[in-house]
Amino acid sequence: MYPSTAQGENLFVALARDGGTHAVKYLYDNGRDDLELINGAFLVAAQNGSTGAIDFLLETGSISSEVIDEAFVAAGGSVLRAKTVSFLYEKKRATSEAINKVFASTHCFAVRKLLYENEVIPTEAIIAAFQRATLYGIGHFFRLTKDKLDTVRLLCELGCIPAGVIGKAYSDAATRHLTQIMELLRDHPKLSREVRESAFANAASAGYLDLLRTMYDVNFITPDALLTAFLTTRISETKAIVETLAAFMCKKEHVPKAIRAEAFVAAAEKGLKTVLEILNEAEDGDWPLGLLKRALAVATVKNVKNYIRKLVCNQIFSGRAVFGCWQAIERLDVDMLVSWKVKTEVSF
């Protein structure tokens, strides 16, 4: 039934892979006891979760320490092999080097938790595991799984993870819209104001309105950071972003008028009439005439220019239109209007 040829040796490995423990034992008892063959079969059995074959082959005493480590690491690389890793771990044959490697690289939270609770894991492995779980520095095509989130939840509370690693994970999450990771890290004591503000700007630039609203906190995001995000955000497809940033700037108790003034000029230059209206409402139209002149000078969109001209008229004539006002402003000659008002001593 079991050939004694080279093909039989391949069958030995195949049977170990598929969990044919009794057949493996039969072949072994009938002379299939070559060390290389046994070790190869053990490795394949571990990769495929055949714990019965693993147990038998271990009992032969022929499995080298190197192969045990290789098998442990191979099983640890699959979320489907948590039971195999636990089985091998209970045998107490894997070296600390292999254990640390599995802790750092496994996709399976159950495996990581098992090792964390029973071993002294070095800082380097903890950092590597955290980075892997937060998709640190890797492409958008990797999926954020429950196992990864559970790992972040477990490890982010450990004091050994450097502030720089925490900060990059948070900033990357903002750029890539990984909201669940951001929720886990948002209150982390190692997140600096600079990192929070950078992540806030990244979310604005990426057009993530939901993140922007979640991340804005007057205790962490300074008025200057608000303005920076506003100035650096591209307008295409992000109108709601700049309008939201403008609304944040209108919180007078937290944001000084000078910030709104700079945003007003920038909005004029970008052709954002709605933003101008939001900012103007917060100031009740009370802008310095010099600021309105600056805004008018950089505006290029007709309806924006007309809106600013109206504000100029309101400033000079206390909200009442007079003959010649619009014609003068059309020529951008605001100073002429001021002079005209003084000379004619018009009282409105």
Key terms for this structure?
single chain; 348 residues; mainly alpha; 22 helices; 68% helix; rod-shaped; disordered N terminus; disordered C terminus
Describe this structure in words.
With 348 residues, the protein is mainly alpha-helical. Helix content is 68%, strand content 0%. It has helices spanning 6-17, 21-29, 35-47, 51-59, 65-76, 82-90, 96-105, 109-118, 123-133, 146-155, 163-175, 179-185, 193-206, 209-215, 223-232, 239-249, 257-270, 273-283, 289-298, 302-317, 325-330, 334-344. α5 (65-76) packs antiparallel against α6, α7 (96-105) runs parallel beside α9 (123-133) and α9 crosses α10. The chain is rod-shaped, with a radius of gyration of 34 Å. The model is unreliable at 1-6, 320-324 and 342-348 (pLDDT under 50).
Question: What does this entry show, briefly?
Answer:
It comes from Phytophthora fragariae. This protein is an all-alpha fold and 348 residues long.
Q: Mean pLDDT, as a whole number? A: 86
Separation, N- and C-terminal Cα atoms: 112 Å
Total number of helices: 22
Main pleated sheet: none
- Portion in beta strands: under 5%
Rg, rounded, reads 34 Å
Structural class: mainly alpha
**Which overall shape is indicated by the principal axes computed on the Cα atoms?**
rod-shaped
User: What's the order of the H and E elements?
Assistant: HHHHHHHHHHHHHHHHHHHHHH
Unreliable residue runs:
1-6, 320-324, 342-348
What's the number of extended β-strand segments? 0
Give the helix proportion (percent range): 55-70%
Summarize the helices and strands and which ones pair or pack.
Layout: H1 6-17, H2 21-29, H3 35-47, H4 51-59, H5 65-76, H6 82-90, H7 96-105, H8 109-118, H9 123-133, H10 146-155, H11 163-175, H12 179-185, H13 193-206, H14 209-215, H15 223-232, H16 239-249, H17 257-270, H18 273-283, H19 289-298, H20 302-317, H21 325-330, H22 334-344
Helix pairs in contact: 1-2, 1-3, 3-4, 3-5, 5-6, 5-7, 7-8, 7-9, 8-10, 9-10, 11-12, 11-13, 13-14, 13-15, 15-16, 15-17, 16-18, 17-18, 17-19, 19-20
